[in-house]
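Per your request, structure below.
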């Protein structure tokens, strides 16, 4: 029972602090990356380079966006659907969505079904965020039982 309380109350506790942060700050997609760059430059970039280009601290959502976009671009380069010389703008690619992430983390497969049914646009970003939330939930449970 104690493990059950800690597993379900911790995300709810975090929800209040994170939701307050979203109420004050507007969400920006990869802040500071307003210029276009090539796909090769974006794939070769790391967190330090991204932070130096943006001149501000990256939050969790920006870090997740960066990693998922980088992985998707590497896969597209490997499949040869794009080239390294193609342009990549800051608004292109995956955008982290907090609420589907939280729903996936708290409700698992049922949350994924709810997100797929009720989220209209952009559905792909919401489903990916929900799947990341389910993955985080799985890691939390695995660490709790280890």
């Amino acid at each position: 029972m104690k493990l059950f309380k800690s597993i379900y109350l911790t995300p709810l506790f975090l929800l209040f602090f994170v939701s307050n942060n979203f109420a004050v700050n507007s969400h920006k997609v990869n802040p500071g990356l307003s210029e276009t760059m090539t796909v090769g430059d974006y794939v070769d970039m790391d967190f330090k380079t991204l932070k130096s280009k943006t001149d501000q601290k990256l939050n969790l959502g920006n870090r997740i966006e960066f990693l998922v976009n980088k992985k998707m671009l590497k896969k597209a380069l490997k499949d040869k659907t794009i080239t390294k010389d193609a342009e990549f703008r800051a608004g292109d690619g995956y955008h982290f969505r907090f609420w589907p992430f939280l729903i996936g983390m708290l409700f698992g497969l049922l949350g994924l079904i709810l997100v797929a049914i009720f989220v209209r646009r952009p559905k792909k970003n919401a489903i990916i965020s929900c799947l990341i939330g389910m993955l985080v939930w799985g890691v939390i449970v695995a660490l709790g039982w280890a």
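Residues 17-32 have pLDDT under 50 and may be disordered.

Regards,
D.
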